[in-house]
Write a structure and sequence with these properties.
It comes from Maritalea porphyrae. The protein is an alpha/beta fold. It is built from five helices and six strands; from the N terminus they run E-H-E-H-E-E-H-E-H-E-H. The protein is globular. The structure holds flavin mononucleotide.
């Protein structure tokens, strides 16, 4: 089984999560870039796009068909999965049999609802979900969440 981690990160936290997963599972990483959300002006655009439910159009990932399993994740904006990750769920995850998700917030409050919303965008069942926030990224708690998530992703995919 070939697995790819696809992630978006505006300020670096989700990159830490994505890299920790990729390192543990020894798998490929693909970053989504969305320059319209850079900097302070990008914060306004990010907030507006999330309120309106807008999704940016993302470029194709050329070898996506070669991967059976995808792990997708990124930050929470205004209580919801960020616009690039909602777009990625729509564009990249159709017909994938095995999917893992992660969300990264500022603190713990919005993690459950954002993870639930992201999972609801998919056709397929989700094999594992990792919920992280900025304050925990260098703690043993984070290390064990990554380990638990990676163990779940290494098991057989969930069947519908
Ligand atoms: C426009 C905007 C809105 C945000 N809204 C939330 C929010 O509602 N809840 C939350 O927990 N974090 C919120 N955050 C904080 C980020 O989700 C959090 O810092 C995350 O760890 C950043 O991940 P990143 O560094 O990969 O971009 C928001 C950040 C931005 C830029």
């Amino acid at each position: 089984m070939r697995t790819l981690v696809i992630y978006y990160s505006k300020t670096g936290n989700s990159r830490v999560v994505a890299r920790a997963i990729a390192k543990k599972l020894q798998i490929d990483l693909q970053e989504i870039r969305c320059d319209q959300y850079l900097g302070a002006a990008g914060d306004l655009r990010a907030g507006l796009d999330n309120i309106l439910g807008r999704k940016p159009k993302l470029p194709q990932i050329p070898d996506l068909d070669e991967y059976d399993q995808i792990i997708l994740g990124g930050p929470i904006w205004l209580g919801r999965p960020c616009a690039p990750i909602r777009a990625a769920a729509h564009q990249y995850l159709k017909s994938k049999k095995s999917v893992g998700l992660f969300v990264c917030g500022m603190g713990p409050d919005d993690l459950d609802s954002a993870a639930k919303e992201l999972a609801s965008l998919l056709d397929a069942p989700v094999d594992a979900v990792l919920k992280a926030h900025g304050e925990m990224l260098d703690t043993p708690e984070f290390k064990s969440l990554v380990e638990e998530f990676c163990n779940a992703m290494s098991r057989e995919p969930t069947t519908a």
